[in-house]
Amino acid sequence: MAGEKRFLYRCPVCFGRENDVVLRRQGDRWYCIKCSFTGSSEEIEGMYRDLKKKFRLMTTRITLEDLEADRIGPAGSFEEGTA
Questions:
Q1: Which of 1-5, 53-57, 74-78 has the highest mean pLDDT?
Q2: Looking at the record's lineage, which domain of life comes first (predicted)?
């Protein structure tokens, strides 16, 4: 076990629904005991990237002036420092 990397993945489907379920490993696949999701590490990390896009502006205050000045760019990107 020394020097071996251990991974702990959360189910991206359940996590997107605000449930925190840890995935179990079966060979090179991971599976969720709650929603029956199965996927490889690459698929899970891709779904994590999609979840990050969904919540990227969660801690940013967006005012009506920002919306009126069209500072919210395509796909929800926010241009800071442009006032």
A1: 53-57
A2: Bacteria
Could you tell me the residue range of the domain that residue 40 belongs to? 12-76
How many domains does the structure of the chain reveal? Answer: 1
Q: What percent of the chain has pLDDT over 90?
A: 30
- The DSSP code for 60 is S
29: amino acid identity, one letter: R
Residue from 32, 34, 76, 83 nearest 56 by CA = 76
Beta bridge partner(s), residue 17? none
Strand order in the sheet with 24-26: 24-26, 29-31, 38-39
Alpha helix (H) residue ranges in the chain: 12-16, 41-54, 64-68
pLDDT score recorded for residue 24: 92
Our CA dihedral for 33, 52, 56, 19, rounded to 10 degrees, sits at 0
